[in-house]
Specification:
Number of strands: 15
Distance between the termini: 52 Å
Largest sheet: 8 strands, antiparallel
Number of helices: 3
Order of helices and strands: HEHEEEEEEEEHEEEEEE
Strand content: 35-45%
Helix content: 10-25%
């Protein structure tokens, strides 16, 4: 007959095993979760990209077409997504951002950046963009509602610099904050009816990108 201590040890092992399998989902049931590169490497799927992990940096290689790294085990609804992002000063070859509320490989919302426009005086207003695929692509939004779903940065950032982004996702709105600013760089009404789904790092056509330090926080409004 097993002692009480032995039974407790077996229960502890089962709990540890359960946490190792479903850790991300359980953690997100709390208020926040921080994901390092090591965790993401074991719980992610790359779509149309090759991904390398070096210490805490996550690099998505360039390839024709859009691509992303989908993080498994996270079902994001409303809250705040934070991450550090770095693109490059390569015109039309640096589109980097965060996708969320994904339901499949074609259906998701995203906030992304065009670093090559950060210092371009004629195109600074196209530096940060909101999209809701598959219907609301950047070109449809720019054609139908020019200037409404994209904006210039409200601070100086070099195209090759790391920058921190905070995306506040609520039931009907998305607000995007850069670095330590308390003033949103972009504020838009959401265009998707999907209110939950996967989160991932996103790169646009023929673009590579660097990501690190992603953190998710849930909110109730």
């Amino acid at each position: 007959m097993k002692t009480i201590l032995e039974n407790k040890k077996e229960v502890t092992k089962l709990i540890a095993l359960f946490m190792s399998i479903f850790g991300l989902s359980i953690a997100y049931a709390q208020d926040s979760i921080t994901l390092d590169a090591k965790v993401i490497q074991t719980r992610s799927v790359a779509i149309n990209r090759t991904v390398t992990f070096e210490r805490n940096d996550i690099y998505l290689t360039a390839k024709e077409g859009d691509g992303y790294l989908r993080i498994n085990g996270v079902n994001f609804r409303q809250g705040i997504i934070e991450a550090d992002i770095k693109g490059s000063n390569t015109p039309q070859r640096s589109f980097v951002g965060i996708a969320f509320h994904g339901s499949n490989d074609q259906t998701f919302e995203a906030v992304y950046f065009r670093p090559f426009n950060f210092e371009n005086q004629e195109r600074k207003s196209h530096s940060v963009q909101y999209i809701a695929h598959p219907t609301y692509t950047w070109n449809k939004l720019r054609s139908d509602s020019p200037g409404k779903y994209e904006a210039a940065l409200n601070m100086d950032i070099k195209p090759d610099d790391w920058f921190h982004v905070r995306i506040h996702v609520k039931e009907s709105t998305v607000d995007v904050y850069i670095n330590d600013s308390n003033v949103p760089t972009l504020s838009v009404d959401r265009l998707s009816k999907t209110d939950t789904g996967w989160v991932g790092f996103w790169t646009g056509n023929s673009s590579d990108g660097w990501f690190r330090n992603i953190k998710l926080r849930s909110i109730n409004n």
